[in-house]
């Protein structure tokens, strides 16, 4: 069901500062800032040859990233995103097998303008998983 690794997301207190480290220290190409109010984040993608790193900053105090940064003020790995061909088929298979889809339980539109879901970390050894339809 899952395809390739789409990105690894890192929660940071400030996406612009974090992006400049990747750009200036590592010579990486970085995207413009994308604000996703429905997800409560500002994001920048660091483009690599084989995948991406997503830097995510809270957008408002109700952001789920805000509570994450309270526990880890310097930031850290937040989630891993895998690609799937059909998000609705993936949702059905996952829920049929007892997985918990976070939020409304239905796909929403992510940073790439494609449907995404998040799977509860308790189902995947403590790792928050995002699935994105490609």
Query: The CATH topology is what?
Result: 2,3-Dihydroxybiphenyl 1,2-Dioxygenase, domain 1
CATH class: Alpha Beta
CATH homology superfamily:
2,3-Dihydroxybiphenyl 1,2-Dioxygenase, domain 1
Principal-axis shape equals globular
Radius of gyration over all CA atoms, rounded: 15 Å
Number of helices: 3
CATH level-two architecture: Roll
**What fraction of the residues are assigned to beta strands by DSSP?**
35-45%
Mean pLDDT: 96
Order of helices and strands: EHEEEEHEHEEE
The number of distinct structural domains comes to 1
Q: Using DSSP, what is the number of strands?
A: 9
| Helix content class | 10-25%
What summary fits the major beta sheet? 9 strands, mixed
Unreliably modeled segments: none
Helical/strand content category: alpha+beta
């Amino acid at each position: 069901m899952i395809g390739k690794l789409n990105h690894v997301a890192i929660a940071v207190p400030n996406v612009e500062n974090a992006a400049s480290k990747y750009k200036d220290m590592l010579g990486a190409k970085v995207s413009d800032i994308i604000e996703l109010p429905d997800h409560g984040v500002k994001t920048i993608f660091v483009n690599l040859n084989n995948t991406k790193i997503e830097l995510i900053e809270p957008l408002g105090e109700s952001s789920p990233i805000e509570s994450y940064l309270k526990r880890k003020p310097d930031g850290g790995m937040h989630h891993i995103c895998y690609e799937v061909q059909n998000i609705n088929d993936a949702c059905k298979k996952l829920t049929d097998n007892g997985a918990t889809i976070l939020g409304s339980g239905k796909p929403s539109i992510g940073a790439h303008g494609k449907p995404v879901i998040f799977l509860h970390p308790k189902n995947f050894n403590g790792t928050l998983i995002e699935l994105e339809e490609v």
